[in-house]
Amino acid sequence: MTRGDIESRGAGERSADSTPGTERTPRVAAARKLLRRAGRDRAGRFLVEGAQAVREALAAVTVHELFVTAVAAERHPELVEAAERSGARVSPVTDKAAAGLSETVTPQGIVAVCDLLDVPVATALAGVPGFVTVCDGISDPGNVGTVIRVADAAGCDAVLLAGDTVDPHNGKAVRASTGSVFHLPLARDRDAPAVVEMCRAAGLTTLVADGHGEVDLHDPAVTPTLAGPVAWILGSEAHGPSAEVHAAADHRVRVPIHGRAESLNLATAAAICLYATVGARAGVAPQLSPARD
């Protein structure tokens, strides 16, 4: 596909006007409102920026529209074609218009409009969940996206976003997840203690990651609990989970710090806790054979 194809070739829901849209074009202006949480919640849609994220979106959810510059269309013709095959409207835009839909320093010139991903908590916990991550009051979108990525890698059944946790459809959160927002159920509920109780009602033991918890993550007595159905609850780096969530959870588990570090960052703590469950479920691995020359 050449740079001119995006402006001239007719297909599917191709924009009727071959002239690239500008930042003042009504469809671009409407999409720009999705950069804010209020706009996303009102429209029920969000923006997905960048080639890799758009590729994941096209494979997983309904894409309503694809905004793409001529350069990006030339660089990623397979994404334009996939959008057309899915029935999405493909709208050529100027570089400036694409930049207006971007939250990055160096926009890639390709942005998709998708339906919001979150489902009710009850839906995310339907069936027999065995491994869930709960984010409580995490305000940094990069941290939320990274936790979703770790939860995906560890094989969690769902990620629940409780209390004042940032919207997982935030652009920075989506980018930090590297596509994992499309791989497992996400649910939002502002009543964090109620989310904990719903996890318990679903048969999950609720574990708060707390630097001052009464249970040591590495205590062998904890292994049977870690190997069972669990919901790990993670709070913000600054304050941790709320006092109400602490009280509602079954156990408060600390990751011991053996050196002089003041604390662990959230992404590191999340990986340690979630993979402790992965390890407990796997049991003790067989001893590796010595390397051969």
How would you classify the helix and strand content by structural class?
A: alpha/beta
Low-confidence stretches: 1-13, 284-289
Largest sheet: 7 strands, parallel
The amount of helix comes to: 25-40%
- Strand order across the biggest sheet? 7-6-5-10-8-11-9
Mean pLDDT: 89
Question: What is the succession of H and E elements?
Answer: HHHEHEHHEHEHEHEHEHEEHEHEH
Gyration radius, to the nearest Å?
22 Å
**What is the molecular shape?**
elongated
- What's the count of strands? 11
First and last CA, distance: 51 Å
Percentage of residues in DSSP E strands:
15-25%
Number of helices: 14
Describe what you observe in this structure:
This protein has 293 residues and is α/β, with parallel strands linked by helices. It has helices at residues 5-8, 26-32, 37-43, 51-60, 70-75, 77-86, 95-100, 121-124, 141-154, 171-177, 192-201, 223-227, 243-248, 266-282; strands at 45-49, 63-68, 89-92, 110-115, 131-136, 158-162, 186-189, 205-209, 215-216, 230-235, 251-254. The strands form two sheets. A seven-stranded parallel beta sheet has the order 7-6-5-10-8-11-9, sandwiched between helices. Helix 4 runs parallel beside helix 6 (77-86), helix 9 packs parallel to helix 10 (171-177) and helix 9 (141-154) runs parallel beside helix 14. It starts with a helix and ends in an 11-residue tail after the last helix. Mean pLDDT is 89; it is low at 1-13 and 284-289. Belongs to the class IV-like SAM-binding methyltransferase superfamily. RNA methyltransferase TrmH family. InterPro entries: Alpha/beta_knot_MTases, MRM3-like_sub_bind, Ribosomal_eL30-like_sf, rRNA_Methyltransferase, SpoU_MeTrfase, SpoU_subst-bd, tRNA_m1G_MTases_N. This is RNA methyltransferase. Keywords: Methyltransferase, Transferase.
